Amino acid sequence: MSKIKSLVLGSAAAIVAIGGAQAADLPVKAKAVEYVKVCSLYGAGFYYIPGTDTCIRIGGYLRAEVNFGSASTDATYISGAGGLGDRTTGDYYTRSRIMMNIDTRTATEYGVVRTFGAFGPQFNSGNVDGPDTQAAGSMRVEAAFIQFAGFTFGRSASAYALPWNGAPGNLNSTLMGGPNYDAGVNNVQYTWQFGNGVSASIGIDAQEQANRVGVMNTSAAVDVYGAYGNAYRGSNAVDVVGNIRLDQAWGLIQLSAAAHQNTAAYNGTGAGATIISGHPGDKWGFAVTGALQLKNLPTGPGDDIKISGTYTEGALRYVLGQSGATPRNFQRVDGGGLTFAGVPAADAVYSGGLGTGLELTKAYGFNGAFNHNWNKNWSSSVFGSWSHVDYNANATALICATGYGATSTTCNPDFNVSQLGVSTTWKPVKNLAFIAEATWVNIKQNNTGVAAGTGVRAGQNFAYGDQDAYSGVLRVQRNF
């Protein structure tokens, strides 16, 4: 019996051992793979982030361009060394940029939570000091915001901005006659959707170069070109902005408004500008813009007309809006160096003397474009603008009492800027564009007589006169 028992137990042990060996040879069951799934809730290009209910879309563009007679993005030479014809300024300017867009959206019981960022590196060739100066690589951030329950927090286009945001049909980012927020502004805003295409937004924007130009203290020098030292104090108030919009199949109508506070540093100049010398009282300015877009034109599918008009007091940037900082003076010397225009641009003017106040600058202008599609591969745009800057009698007297009007027969700092341009785009394949654009700019100034140049033009006498400038850009862009 004991032998039979031992045989049975041994056989069982052998079977267990063989089974264990065979089990060891079997593959371990792998974890289920989480495949990326298409998210169709928010349009093409969105996917679920694996393991979450958040959808994401990654896109952007890569751009290469060359500009002629201008700084970056067809910023025609009507200020700075370029406007004065300084030979250290290059005749062309190149740039390469890659911009990344990251868009995430999550459905919640309070509605969609959205985050959006638009950022990327770029490299600009040297244009101010010539091609032998290594230029700058930089990081550009156009947007970084969170949207939740109607609110937007972060960096985005202002609630004042138009839907085409400074580009009704132009490639360049320096079209005047209205606002421009294509580089964004730090803000908080809220939008109501009333249905049938009717909406309204209200917001607060941080004061930065997107909404202020400069404050002129005429106790300091204002040179013959209208250049002056900026006397804006550090910002202590936000711009209050908003819009009402009707957006339908035929086009849209929008009315925007903004309140902008002007604040100066101190009275006096140089060592005399101290806390003891005091400062002029703060003064609020404002801006209003009306805009119209017409679609479904008889000229062809996709064609449209966009126009806007703006009026401001103490807020020049809303009329002279550009992607970069708006120049605090416009200057241009003709090719022969015989005549020139030099005019200041300031939100407000004060004398720097005790008891004086800020004199707000008035400005108004309009811009617009007609956009036409020749066929699926070719399209063109004709665009333009007109802007007027008007200093009141007190501000004019203060400016003309400085070096600005010292040698002129008639001193009048008021001026107009006109722009006209044409752009043509060829898209040989989807999302690849070759674009050419040309722009004419005219500065109409109101000084008469003769003035003595300064800086690189020192020792040279000029006759005051209106000035024309021309620029162009060639761009290749791939969207993805």
What distinguishing features does this structure have?
mainly beta; 480 residues; single chain; disordered N terminus; Porin; globular; 27 strands
Which helices and strands, and how do they pair?
Layout (H helix, E strand, L loop, with lengths): L1 H24 L21 E2 L5 E15 L1 E2 L3 E2 L3 H4 L8 E17 L2 E14 L11 E13 L2 E6 L28 E11 L2 E8 L9 E3 L21 E10 L2 E12 L20 E12 L9 E10 L15 E5 L5 E6 L3 E3 L8 E2 L1 E12 L4 E13 L2 H8 L7 E3 L4 E15 L2 E14 L2 E5 L8 E4 L2 E13 L1
Parallel strand pairs: 11-18, 17-26
Antiparallel strand pairs: 1-2, 2-5, 2-27, 3-4, 5-6, 6-7, 7-8, 8-9, 9-10, 10-12, 12-13, 13-14, 14-15, 15-20, 16-17, 18-19, 20-21, 21-23, 22-25, 23-24, 24-27, 25-26
SSE order, as H and E?
A: HEEEEHEEEEEEEEEEEEEEEEEHEEEEEE
Structure summary, number of beta strands: 27
The separation of the N and C termini measures 83 Å
Number of helices: 3
Q: Describe the sheet with the most strands.
A: 16 strands, antiparallel, barrel
Residue windows where pLDDT falls under 50 for at least 5 positions = 1-5, 11-24
Q: What is the subunit arrangement here?
A: single chain
Task: Give the CATH topology of the domain at 151-328 and 335-479.
Answer: Porin
Determine the structural class based on helices, strands and strand pairing.
mainly beta
Mass-distribution shape:
globular
Mean pLDDT: 90
Assign a percent range to the helix content. Answer: under 10%
Strand content: over 45%
CATH architecture of the domain at 151-328 and 335-479: Beta Barrel
Spatial strand order of the main sheet: 2-5-6-7-8-9-10-12-13-14-15-20-21-23-24-27
Q: What is the C-alpha radius of gyration, as a whole number of Å? A: 30 Å
